[in-house]
Amino acid sequence: MTLLRQPANWWRENRLALLASITAMFILLFTIGGAVGIANAATKPAAADDGVKGQTFTIATDTTWAPFEFQRDGELRGIDIDLIHAVAEDQGFDVKIDVLGFDGALAAVTAGQADAVMAGMSITKERQKTFDFSNPYFDSGIQMAIASDDTSITGYEDLEESPSRPRPALRATPSPRTSARSSASRSPASRTPPTRTTT
Fold this sequence. Notes:
Blueprint: H1 2-43, E1 56-61, E2 64-65, E3 69-72, E4 75-77, H2 79-91, E5 94-99, H3 102-111, E6 116-120, H4 125-128, E7 131-133, E8 181-186
Parallel strand pairs: 1-5, 1-6
Antiparallel strand pairs: 2-3, 3-4, 6-8, 7-8
């Protein structure tokens, strides 16, 4: 009988601590399991959006900016060309690339004749009213060149034209291509169907 009393006494003395420990283990187990499930869902690659899968998007570009986009032997090449093909493959859509020049590419997207521009473009507040931009993926900085004997231009502020200051003979303004490489598509208000830009 003594053998039966010892476990019963132990249970009476320790049951609250034991039940609290078991409860804490279940709470910990469910918390860790939930966190692992959330982490797996967050790190799992997103499946192709059924809205773009199987579609063909027209991408307008300018092929004068090697190594990003250029033509060699009649073939489109460059970082941007490889990038848009990789995104299309990953997301399950096809691309048709139209070489229109920079201004033509912007006009085509604005007019709805192309779905996106794949070219370097400075991201400005004015352009963001019309275009959605990808995250910048290359920053070349702003550059200008001045003749070595020209002392009238010492900084960007000297390039501003005013009635008292005529335009300098060499006009070197920041190009829309010098700030950041990014892709652009029409803004959500003007875009149908939705398009994707690279990220």
